[in-house]
Design a protein that fits this description.
Length: about 375
């Protein structure tokens, strides 16, 4: 029990030290004084799939944002929606700056992204999802840093406040990590709902890739810097409405899949590989170790009061994650606990299905 508890405490401590480690070399980012001419052209790619309720508001917003550029286009790629999105999109098809592409069957996000980039006329490309609400002036702001020659991509920042102004504590922590990574020029993954890249930096994404935003980011980091603009705010739905076991399992499957992409990992520098594993993978050990502490303390509950205390605390935390709470502090703690519970059961599910250590790479081989 002492060994498991010590390992758990060490992993938690190590994860919390990551921001301090980033701060220690934040100044390593070289000053980039080489600039291109002002950016006056942009292609925005809007990925559409069964999001009819969001499309009108999002398209009108993007068209207003695009008007700030002399040359611009909005390319909408619909992935064979079945909720009436196709009929709605036809209302925008007569606009000169709008081009709509319809997939004859559901192909997936990588296919739509590849198609959109191949269709784009301009050198600066912005990817946008349909659901999230964006801050005013975001398009001009997110494209601006691409004038620097060493910058290959710029990420928007998902707000820790959702559309209903409720705080998501873990998002705030994640934004803090990404802000520190950005100061080194090595952002470990853009936020997928809204980000900008130079078209020359785009690498075709294999059809089976789950975390397309992370995959593309790692490919870009081979030769260019990636930063985040914290003033480019992305507001999402309330955490509880779109984050569940299924989402956690998909995310974990995507992380395991990235490990199987040997060429992608190999192309990173040593420092970038440390950042990737420290930021993305180390925290996945925490829910597993906490569960082991729980089981061990339960088995040894008759051996001493300390085991009863550990067992009781973890049990209470588990109940906290499923019971309704009115206290603001307790609600935040409930969210943290629930996320870790999702991750644990997603890991357990992948293990029991035999896929935890057997992800397929883009070459089709098992690892």
């Amino acid at each position: 029990m002492i060994v498991i508890f010590s390992i758990t405490a060490f992993i938690v401590f190590l994860y919390l030290v990551y921001p301090l480690w980033l701060t220690s070399f934040a100044s390593d980012k070289s000053t980039d004084e080489q600039e291109t001419e002002g950016i006056n052209c942009v292609s925005v790619l809007l990925l559409s799939f069964n999001g009819k309720e969001y499309l009108t508001e999002k398209i009108n917003f993007l068209l207003r944002e695009l008007s700030a550029f002399e040359f611009h286009e909005l390319i909408i790629i619909d992935d064979n929606s079945s909720d009436g999105s196709v009929e709605l999109l036809r209302n925008f098809g007569n606009l000169d700056c709008v081009k709509i592409l319809y997939n004859s069957r559901q192909e997936g996000i990588p296919f739509s992204m590849n198609l959109g980039v191949a269709t784009a006329k301009y050198d600066y490309v912005v990817f946008s999802d349909q659901r999230q609400r964006l801050s005013e002036g975001i398009l001009k702001k997110i494209v601006e840093p691409l004038k620097f020659t060493k910058t290959g991509a710029v990420s928007g920042c998902i707000s820790y406040l959702d559309k209903g102004k409720k705080c998501f504590f873990l998002r705030r922590h994640e934004n803090s990590l990404k802000s520190k990574e950005s100061k080194t020029g090595n952002l470990m993954g853009v936020y997928g709902p809204f980000y900008a890249i130079k078209k020359q930096c785009y690498s075709s994404i294999p059809a089976n890739i789950i975390l397309d935003d992370l995959y593309l980011s790692l490919k870009i980091l081979k030769s260019k810097q990636i930063i985040i603009r914290e003033d480019c705010r992305i507001m999402d739905e309330e955490f509880s409405t779109h984050y569940d076991f299924k989402r956690a399992r998909r995310y974990l499957s995507g992380l395991l899949q990235i490990l199987s992409e040997a060429s992608v990992i190999h192309d990173l520098t040593k420092k970038q590989r440390i950042m990737l594993f420290w930021h993305k993978y180390l925290r996945l050990l925490i829910p597993v170790l906490v569960f082991l502490c729980y089981i061990t303390s339960g088995l040894m509950i008759m051996e001493g009061i300390e085991y009863l205390m550990v067992f009781s605390v973890i049990t209470l935390a588990g109940l906290l994650s499923i019971l309704p709470m009115k206290s603001y502090f307790l609600c935040k703690m409930k969210t943290v606990i629930r996320v870790n519970v999702y991750y644990f059961f997603a890991l357990l599910n992948l293990f029991l299905n035999g896929t935890l250590f057997q992800s397929k790479g883009t070459d089709g081989t098992n690892t």
